[in-house]
């Protein structure tokens, strides 16, 4: 399953639209005013289904992930020199990026490749293609991409 993740051109807070390959809206993401990044994920019907909340006052970036009102776990950035790496503390998912921080892969020792994320260059706004092997992992993979993008925004 492929998803196209596009940041909206004009918005005060982080806002994104996520489309399928046919151009249908799968999810909408709205940034909320808070201490640290707080992103609410809505399904195609406008129902709130997930939240990505940045933990503040941490040495390395950490993001709490919630789906359908339940805490899933925390995505934590690890200290590395050249390539970014994140771990998801409630599962065996590992996220590794390229040195350019444009391409990422989510892997699991038990499942292999969970998702591949690539940033599209020469776009007006941040645009990512998320290729998820199992559609059941689409929401979690989207939350990982949102956390990575928020971490990159935090640095710049």
Brief summary:
This protein is mainly beta.
What's the assembly state of these chains? single chain
Any low-confidence stretches, pLDDT <50, length ≥5? none
- Numbering strands along the chain, what is their spatial order in the largest sheet? 1-2-3-4-5-6-7-8-9-10-11-12
Q: Largest sheet, described in full?
A: 12 strands, antiparallel, barrel
User: What fraction of residues sit in β-strands?
Assistant: over 45%
Alpha-beta classification: mainly beta
Total E-strand runs: 12
Give the topology string: H per helix, E per strand. Answer: EEEEEEEEEEEEH
Q: In angstroms, what is the radius of gyration?
A: 14 Å
Written description of the protein model:
- The protein is mainly beta and 156 residues long.
- It contains 1 helix and 12 strands.
- A 12-stranded antiparallel barrel has the order 1-2-3-4-5-6-7-8-9-10-11-12.
- β3 and β4 form a beta hairpin.
- The protein is globular.
- 31% of the residues are buried.
- The mean pLDDT is 88.
SSE inventory with pairings:
Elements: E1 2-7, E2 15-19, E3 25-31, E4 38-43, E5 48-55, E6 62-67, E7 70-77, E8 85-88, E9 94-97, E10 103-108, E11 112-119, E12 127-132, H1 138-155
Salient structural properties:
156 residues; mainly beta; twelve-stranded antiparallel β-barrel; 1 helix; 47% strand; globular
């Amino acid at each position: 399953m492929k998803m196209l993740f596009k940041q909206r051109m004009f918005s005060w807070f982080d806002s994104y639209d996520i489309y399928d390959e046919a151009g249908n809206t799968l999810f909408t993401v709205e940034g909320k005013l808070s201490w640290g990044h707080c992103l609410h994920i809505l399904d195609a019907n406008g129902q709130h289904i997930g939240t990505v909340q940045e933990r503040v006052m941490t040495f390395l970036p950490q993001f709490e992930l919630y789906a359908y009102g339940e805490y899933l776990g925390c995505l934590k950035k690890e200290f590395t020199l050249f390539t970014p790496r994140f771990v998801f503390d409630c599962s065996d998912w590992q996220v590794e990026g390229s040195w350019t921080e444009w391409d990422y892969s989510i892997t699991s020792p038990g499942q292999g490749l969970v998702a591949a994320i690539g940033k599209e260059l020469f776009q007006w706004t941040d645009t990512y293609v998320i290729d998820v092997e199992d559609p059941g992992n689409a929401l979690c993979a989207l939350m990982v991409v949102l956390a990575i993008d928020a971490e990159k925004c935090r640095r710049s």
